[in-house]
Each structure stands twice: as C-alpha cells, then as structure tokens.
C-alpha cells in the first residue's frame, strides 16, 4: 500500500514503524525531510479543525492515508458517502423551494407526490450533470485525463469534501433564513477546490475554475426545474 507525505504529496512506503503496542516512530518523507503524516498522533478533532480551515495537508491525510482504494471497505464507503450526499442535497432542495406554509395537514396526496417527484428529479439530474460537468472541466480546464480508478478517487474526494452539507442538519433544529443554504454552498465549493487541488496537483486558479463550472451547471439546472414547476 502506498501513502503520501501530507506536506509535499510525495509517495512514501510507510507512515510509521511500530515497535510495540502504543510505541511507534513516525517516518520522514525522503523528499521534504519532514514527518510524513503527523496527524497519525493527533486527535480526530484536530483533523476536523484543519479540514474546516482548508489545510491541504489535512485533505492529503484523509484522502491518501486514511481513505484509499486499497482499503477493504473502499467500495462500501463510496456508496455510503454518495447516499449521504444525495440525502443532504434532497433536504436542501426541500428547504429552499418549499415555504413552510405549503407543508400542512391539508396537503393533498397529489401535491405530496408532485413535490417529491420534483425533488428526486432535481437531485438526481442536478448531481448527474454536476459530476459530468466536473469531469469535463477537469479534462479541459486542468488538462488531465483520468482512468476509471482515478475517477473513483476523484468522486470520493468530491463527496468527502462536501462535508459542510452536514450543517444542513442544524436547520432541522433551529430556524435559519434560506440565505444560510448559499453560505453552506460557498463552503462546499471552496472545500471541493482544495480537494481537487490535492488530487490533481494543479494550480489553485484552474481548480477554482473547474469547481465553479460544475457548481454553476448544477445551480442553473436546479433553477430551471424550479421555474418550470413554479
């Protein structure tokens, strides 16, 4: 199994040597001579804070050294991440497009199924076009082409870096204005940009451009469905 240095992204054979239970020595990177992955000895909260702060080394730790295709549970993790991503996106769609007064006991069965049909089309088609435009933007803007295994790495990176969608759960407990959704979207876009830069090792400007294209396509798609159904 191959790992990467969280500082420079250089390939390393191992991250630590274990002499006895609880007694390990962290390995150094042959390229930058720094400790390959200091997050091994850090608490999970430290990793989460650095992810929120958009530190590339935290993303390298998560994508390459924790989640990798060599992992036994990679396929299951991919499907679970995709399911959670779609569920949060579905809730976002309902939160933005349906005022509270429309959700009452007087709602007819037809209206109920109409709302959920629109939501499913919105989420499934919107995210399908999002991923397609993301891949096209990567090929054209970043000038890179990826194999299928590389595509799975990229897909997992996008799903994992969209963790800010979890904050949508707070709107189930507390009342927020609809504008908070777009603030979360901005954080998701910036997090996707950092993850894309870590995966492709491209420039920040190109990664921002690729992410903006993909998110713009998704936003336009959802708006079109909103006005069609209005």
From TrEMBL:
Q: Which InterPro entries does the entry link to?
A: Arv1
Any idea what this protein is called? Protein ARV
Species of origin reads Durio zibethinus
Task of the protein? Regulates also the sphingolipid metabolism.
Q: What is its main location?
A: endoplasmic reticulum
One GO BP annotation of this record:
intracellular sterol transport
Q: Where are the transmembrane segments?
A: 115-142, 154-174, 180-200, 207-228
GO cellular component terms, semicolon-separated: cortical endoplasmic reticulum; endoplasmic reticulum membrane; Golgi apparatus
> What are the protein's UniProt keywords?
Endoplasmic reticulum, Lipid metabolism, Lipid transport, Membrane, Sphingolipid metabolism, Transmembrane, Transmembrane helix, Transport
Task: Tell me the membrane topology, using the record's own terms.
Answer: Multi-pass membrane protein
Stated family: Belongs to the ARV1 family.
């Amino acid at each position: 199994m191959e790992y990467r240095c969280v500082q420079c992204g250089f390939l390393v054979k191992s991250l630590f040597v274990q002499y006895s239970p609880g007694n390990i020595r962290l390995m150094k990177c042959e390229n930058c001579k720094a400790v390959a992955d200091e997050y091994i000895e850090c608490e999970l909260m430290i990793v989460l804070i650095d992810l929120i702060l958009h530190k590339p080394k935290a993303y390298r730790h998560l994508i390459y050294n924790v989640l990798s295709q060599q992992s036994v549970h990679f396929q299951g993790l991919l499907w679970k991440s995709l399911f959670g991503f779609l569920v949060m996106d579905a809730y976002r769609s309902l939160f933005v497009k349906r005022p509270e007064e429309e959700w009452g006991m007087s709602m007819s069965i037809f209206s109920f199924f109409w709302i959920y049909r629109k939501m499913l089309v919105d989420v499934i088609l919107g995210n399908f076009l999002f991923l397609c435009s993301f891949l096209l933007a990567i090929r054209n803007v970043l000038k890179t082409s990826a194999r299928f295994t590389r595509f799975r790495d990229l897909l997992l990176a996008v799903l994992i870096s969209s963790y800010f969608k979890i904050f949508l759960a707070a709107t189930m407990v507390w009342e927020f204005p609809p504008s908070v959704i777009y603030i979360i979207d901005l954080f998701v876009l910036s997090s996707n940009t950092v993850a894309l830069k870590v995966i492709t090792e491209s420039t920040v400007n190109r990664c921002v451009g690729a992410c903006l294209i993909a998110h713009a396509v998704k936003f336009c798609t959802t708006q079109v469905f909103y006005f069609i159904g209005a």
